[in-house]
Amino acid sequence: MAETVGGVSATASPVANSSGSVTNQAIQVLQGPYITNTYGGGIQCQGPTRNFTPYVTGTASASKPFEGYYNDPVYDISDNRGAFDENGGAIGDGIIDNPGKILFHKRTRTGQKDNYSLGVGFSMTWSTPTDKKLQELCKTAAASNIQLMQQAHANKRLDFEIARLKNCGELMQKGIMFRPGTEMAKICSDVMVVNKNSIAPHVHKIP
């Protein structure tokens, strides 16, 4: 019904519509806590922290269903009859002879395509304490505390060895000892009792 408007042939023209989308992506770096070392006695020192955060981002946009081409119909807009000229020949009268008739389909490219993007990278931060003096004091206190623990360990070791020497020696004087070659005989294997469980060579003067 809209083939003619005011006696003028009207032909529909294809209209192309384009649309797009924008995706904003951000990388968030979460700062971890400082690494804390505990040395006992309430001594704790925090060291620098390095945070390494790899990331991979990607986007894809596509239209479904995908159509690379479409068939655009070509209509018959011929106007060859409907009126007569002065000689009686058929001429057009301004009205399409075969309205709505499709002559053929024209293959038209849509220009549709898929879009892909890929981003790979990493973000790295290095966090360090700002008060260097407190860090040095904490390290000094930690070193001193370690020396105290080593000395306490040495004292405990000395007490153990002296107690072992004393008990093994007293038992050996009484003739009590582990059987040689047994598993527990090594406890007193390095203990010696001199001139107590045997008579050393000596000389007496006879008046």
Please indicate the percent range of residues in DSSP E strands (runs of 2 or more): 25-35%
Instruction: Tell me the overall shape.
Output: rod-shaped
Strand order of the largest sheet: 1-2
Beta strands, count: 10
Number of helices: 1
Give the assembly state of these chains: single chain
Helix fraction, binned, reads 10-25%
* Rg, nearest Å: 52 Å
End-to-end distance, in Å? 163 Å
Query: What's the rounded overall pLDDT mean?
Result: 81
> Uncertain segments of ≥5 residues (pLDDT<50)?
none
Number of structural units classed as domains = 3
Please describe what this structure looks like.
The chain is rod-shaped and about 185 Å long. The model has no long low-confidence stretch (mean pLDDT 81). The protein is built from 1 helix and 10 strands, in the order E-E-E-E-E-E-E-E-E-E-H. It has 207 residues and is α+β, with helices and mostly antiparallel strands. It has one helix at 132-173, and strands spanning 4-5, 8-9, 35-40, 43-47, 49-61, 69-75, 82-84, 90-92, 102-109, 115-127. 1% of the residues are buried. It is 20% helix and 30% strand. The strands form 5 sheets. It has a two-stranded antiparallel sheet with strand order 1-2. The protein folds into 3 domains: 28-60 and 115-128, no CATH class; 63-113, no CATH class; 130-195.
